[in-house]
Fold these 3 entries.
Entry 1:
Amino acid sequence: MKFQFFRGDNLKAYLFLAPFLIVYSLFMLYPIIKGFIISLHDWTLGMDSTFVGFQNYITMFKDSYFWEALGNTILFVLISTPALIFVGLGIALLVNAGLKGTTFLRSVFFLPYVLSISVIASIWVFILQPYTGLLNTFLHKMGIAKEIFWLGDENLAWVSILIATIWWTVGFNMVLFLAGLQEIPDEYYEAAKMDGANSWKQFISITLPSLKGVMLLTVVLQTINSFKLFGQPYLMTNGGPGTETRALVQYIYEKGFIEQQMGVASSMSYVLFAITIVFAFIQFKFFQNKD
């Protein structure tokens, strides 16, 4: 077979793709390659760089704060991904049930997703702050006199960040699951009812297997987004109390733009990238259809 890469309709297709490929290469591929090169250099912004090989990676692995920030990030991934999947699926089932006002419910649940993280953080800081916060004021009205420091208590800070994250992003998962639910033929449920299957049996035997593809997509996207955690702890707790909620992306930001250690920051970014790829690969293997 002759090679026809630049012949006929193929050439026209590549000409149409060229603008996207140029922009993608400039703003995606080039920064990735450049970032890896920086990770091999000792470089401060505005100064000449010095090639140090993998010394930045050695420095990173010896940094206890790096391991703490990585542990905080993995903890958030492990608690946020299942929570957002279950809540998103539950809301989608509710909206898909055919009740009155489902259009209004879809809008209500999805609306927070279109807001910026700065707006979300401001709203939840107002709700959770001590003494004058909306939640503590409500609890005081209910007879609970104790002042709860939602963002200052190390046992409650992650819970607060998780609640804010669910409220902000669960609408996107709801839309994905809702699209999957609406693609399931009604004939499946009608046949199950004729066989005497109750609602739970229908959910286990029809709904969940039919949502396997959507579940994989949602889990992978949610895991990647959770690994990129930055705005919520940075704006709500500033990584505190202490460094209890400092995520790895926040530590990369501090290393690169505050401490001016761009090489070490780049090496941390590539380690985070590698870990994210490994998690995504494991999820694809777990949800892969053996048929």
Entry 2:
Amino acid sequence: MSKGAVMQGMQMFFEQLHNVFEFVCVYYSTILGFCAIISIFVMGIIMALRSSAFAGHVFGRAALWCMLIPVLFCGKLRAYFETRVGVRTIFRWYSFLSEHRWICAVYMAGIIAFAALLIYRRVRLKRLISFMTDSEDHLSVYPVKVFAGKASSFCLGCFKPVIVVPDSLQGAERGVVIKHEETHIRLGHLWILLAYDILRTLLWPNVLLHLGVRYLKRDLEDICDLVTIQRNNIDTGFYGRVILDCAKDMSDSGRKIGYESGMSFTTDDNYKALRKRLEQIVRERAYNPKAVLGGTVILVMVVCAAIGFIKANSYKRTNDMGPVCSMCYTGDLDSIFVDDDQTIVTYYDDEYISINAKALLEQYPEAKSGDGWFYFSVGGYYKIPGIGGSVSWGELNAKDINESIIIIPNHSDIDIFERLIMWL
């Protein structure tokens, strides 16, 4: 193979790779942008309900955050393109991206940058933990590390959880804090934080998601307080004093390694929020574990039903264009005819295209005495309206038109890059 052929092949490869990259930017920034717009309204509902109707319900406030889960499946709703409200509101985002493609690259760059920042914080925290000593006086089912000095306690690691406590805590106080962090781990709060970080990374333009982190952590802290006290039969007065002492130590030292990394549930709240938490600890009454479990099952069923409803009213991964054919004639390239009622292209499959020559010449009468070429584009797919591709084509020389029905080969341009786009 000559050097020129190799260079040409490399050029074609990188051009196709660029096309895939451009598609990924445009497609995902479009559908994630739709999700981000929807999430603004959902966050407004969550914040309004948690401070009103659900203000006195610990588990209810936390359950409200599950409303964000179906949002990630709202990117391909038919309502954006097929309803008057969708066209007048959210469809504007699609039109804006169509006119300013560079916004797509900015959106994807924002996702990469935000994800890199979160990963860097976690890696840095793990390195810091690796230099800490193991706790020997308070054993736990999870590894316990001791931080030299005063700092906020926290837990880290979804797969291999680790608990970190400051050495300023001793005796029964340290035992309570360890029990508290164990509850966070057992209730899956670390996984919830990870899921929320992924959500706000994908939908990063929605500032409300970033501001909502502290409120999510407050709600998880309230649940953790309630469950820790009841499961371990801890006196609420003593538990409240431990929480207050930890907050005071953290404030005095200024060391908030867990908070800065995003892994501490002890958020950097003001006095008002801390007082509200302590008041809730004192006045909280015992909960019914069976009722909470039943409510959780119902919540999961509702979320799954919402996702199923959204998927049923959304575009599929690939959608058939149907019996639509576009054609052009080299003798009149400015005239492109779309045959959507199968007048000219009467039938096509994976191998052949059937053409009504009489109808074709009626559309392009100049071809009767010409020697140009007809090009047909048939079939194709779309991910959402306006984003997709035509994957097969045929050609016909005007000189070969000598009968009413003509059968020509159907060529497919589907390659590995096209199949990758169809799969995404």
Entry 3:
Amino acid sequence: MAHAILSASGASRWLACTPSARLEEQFPDSTSEYAKEGTLAHEVCELKVRKNLIEQIPTRTYNTKLKKLKENELWQDEMDKFTDVYLEYIQELVHSYSCSPAVMVEKKVDFSQYVPEGFGTADCIVIAEGTMHIIDFKYGKGVAISAENNPQMKLYALGAYLEYSMLYPIEKIKMAIVQPRLENEASESEIFVAELMDWAENVVKPLAEKAYKGEGTYIAGNHCRFCRAKATCRERARMNLEASKFEMRAGALLSDTEVGEALKMAQDLAKWAEDLKEYALTESLKGKIIPGWKAVEGRSVRAFKDTDLAIKTIVDSGIDEALLYERKQLTLAQIEKLLGAKQFKELVGELVEKAPGKPTLVLETDKREKIVNRITAEEDFNDNYEEEK
């Protein structure tokens, strides 16, 4: 399917930086192995939902289609389990209603009434009892995506509402992102139709008109991450180079206030530097000259030409084969994948505890609750005792 200039997936960029959509047209829309892997996982998801909730696909036909997908070079057995998580989420949702909801998968939604030539593909739409659910499957494991105030999900919801509101009474829309390789629970959010339509009319429509014409002001920020122009965008360069002009005040050490300010200014610097490096390497390998830089071979790594033959040769020489391997217990997550979520819960669910996650620093706008390490009296005594010693 062709990509829209103002796509739902790119909405976080063109809504924040309206000229970026046209700027990106100068760069090839390349795909990666990760994207291809995600496409394959989506095809598996679609097949499973169709068989279990929409169509009476004969078992033999289903198995044949699934087998063909498994023949893809990007297939991994874990994909079967992760796509089951997506299916189970939708099944639980469907079965939570007393009636039989309407279920649509891989549905093209059109929101061109508000976004010029705007369309996208919603992974799954479920409608029942005045509520429409938009469920999106993410197979990536690099960045956790939140459904809260997510413009991509809201545009899917807008397009779906415009199509189905004449057939079904819809008052509220619930959005969910299922990302099983990163999060155990789906990220969920909801919005009333009146609020969605107000956003579409007063926020999306005027910005989309500017974006389609390539008008507006370039604005750099976190939304630059997936922009095709991110490496050589002058506004992003200006923002990051501006960080180097951080105003130093008196004193040998930065104050806590200055640390906070510097972190905000520098948070994109490392990412930008890596993007520049990747761009320069790619262009150098094409034969272009990046003044002051050149591409060279990196550090080589030794590897057996034929691992099986190498191991056999060593064993045949009299070395105990057991010495060449190590026995290692699977992690909790790997054991759960092996057994399946249902059997895992039945067997050892009560033996699982969830420890607090490792502290991480985020912007104060993050919705997670603030934590502070509280020193117990015993810890305080031990610290003082060690200091006195």
